[in-house]
Write a structure and sequence with these properties.
It is globular and about 45 Å long. The chain is 52% helix and 10% strand. The N terminus and C terminus are likely disordered. A 5-stranded parallel sheet has the order 2-3-1-4-5, sandwiched between helices. The chain is of the alpha/beta class and 248 residues long.
Length: 248
């Protein structure tokens, strides 16, 4: 990756200044490459001397996770674990879209919204410079049928509760290729889930969708938007505006 020198100086200035924390979230269908991009972005900013924290939404924010996973296993007879090409699994949780389960989700997601709000506030009081969310409340809203007006209204309500990250990414991906990397859900559900993410991005108007591209190109695009988020935090304390050039 290549960035202009003034972008590099901007990043160095962040580590020395008192500033509000820059926040980024990553969302998308399973197998879209989020873990790889999060790891690369965190490594880049740590190399620049920034204090980076990665928050895993499912492990550190979501409510009643054990109950939810056990319900998918016992009630719907789904398998546990993370699928891989060598060891695929057949999960039955977010891909169950019956009306009773949708009602349960509405309650759980409301709990998660307040949990997300608390987690964001706690993180913003910490000593880190750059906060990365590995999934966010968006990944739950994408499990809803956003073609339904009631579900769209619910999504807007949730976003009145939840703080918005400085930059929110949805990594788009070809469903067939994503399932090949992480075989956990039926292909038809992955297609529906991908469309829900795109619908959510249009509905909220605050999510940056990164189209399917080679890994290095995705990395450059993410860094460009992440640097813009940092520049907004730093500009308030800079005597001159910091110029950015899209990485190439």
């Amino acid at each position: 990756m290549f960035v202009r020198k003034d972008s590099y100086q901007m990043v160095k200035a962040v580590s020395k200044s008192k500033r509000r924390i820059a926040t980024v979230s990553f969302s998308g269908i399973d197998g879209a490459g989020k873990s790889t991009q999060i790891r690369e972005l965190a490594s880049y900013f740590r190399h620049q001397g920034l204090r980076v924290s990665v928050v895993a939404f499912w492990d550190e924010i979501a409510s009643l996770t054990n109950l939810r996973e056990n319900a998918g296993h016992r009630i719907f007879k789904g398998e546990k674990g993370v699928g891989s090409p060598e060891a695929p699994v057949n999960r039955r949780d977010k891909n169950v879209r019956s009306w009773p389960m949708s009602c349960v989700r509405l309650l759980l997601y409301m709990l998660d919204a307040f949990s997300t709000r608390r987690a964001m506030r706690a993180a913003l009081r910490s000593s880190v410079d750059f906060l990365i969310f590995d999934r966010y409340i968006y990944d739950e809203l994408a499990n809803l049928n956003l073609r339904n007006p009631l579900m769209r209204a619910y999504a807007r309500l949730i976003m009145k509760i939840v703080p918005r990250p400085g930059v929110s990414f949805v990594l788009d991906a070809d469903p067939f290729q994503a399932r090949a990397r992480k075989p956990e859900y039926p292909l038809e559900f992955i297609r529906l889930n991908r469309q829900s993410y795109l619908d959510l991005a249009r509905l909220l108007g605050e999510i940056t969708v990164i189209p399917p591209m080679p890994i290095d190109d995705v990395q450059r695009e993410i860094l460009y938007h992440a640097l813009r988020a940092l520049s907004g935090s730093v500009a308030e304390r800079c005597s001159e505006p910091v110029a950015l050039q899209k990485v190439s």
